[in-house]
């Protein structure tokens, strides 16, 4: 909850685990756990280390340059927006 608030300006209720992955890091690996969340309050805004933050439907998401394997992982978890 704290990390989401810092990175997006949103307060959320954390729901069930959607999936986990490990990705290479400069020293070892990152272990990433993604949870379903419900927005309670706040206004979406980028954190201090991001240029932009936005809600994306399927059409917009298809045009964005995503981190390697993100689209495939979200698709495998059934978490991509529907067209």
Helix tally equals 3
The total number of structural domains is: 1
Structural class given helices, strands, pairing? alpha+beta
The averaged pLDDT comes out at 93
Order of helices and strands: HEEHH
Largest sheet: 2 strands, antiparallel
Radius of gyration: 14 Å
**Sequence stretches where pLDDT stays below 50 over 5 or more residues:** none
Strand proportion, as a percent range, falls in 35-45%
* Helix content bin: 10-25%
Shape annotation: globular
- First-last Cα distance: 29 Å
**How many extended strands?**
2
Strand order of the largest sheet: 1-2
Explained architecture:
The chain has 83 residues and is α+β, with helices and mostly antiparallel strands. It has one domain (2-76). The chain is 22% helix and 37% strand. It has helices at 2-8, 58-61, 70-76, and strands at 10-25, 28-42. Strands 1-2 form a two-stranded antiparallel ribbon. A hairpin with a 2-residue loop joins strand 1 and strand 2. The longest helix is centred in the N-terminal third of the chain and has 7 residues, at 2-8.
Quick summary of this structure?
The chain is an alpha+beta fold.
For the structure shown, list the relevant keywords:
2 strands, single chain, 22% helix, alpha+beta, two-stranded antiparallel sheet, 83 residues
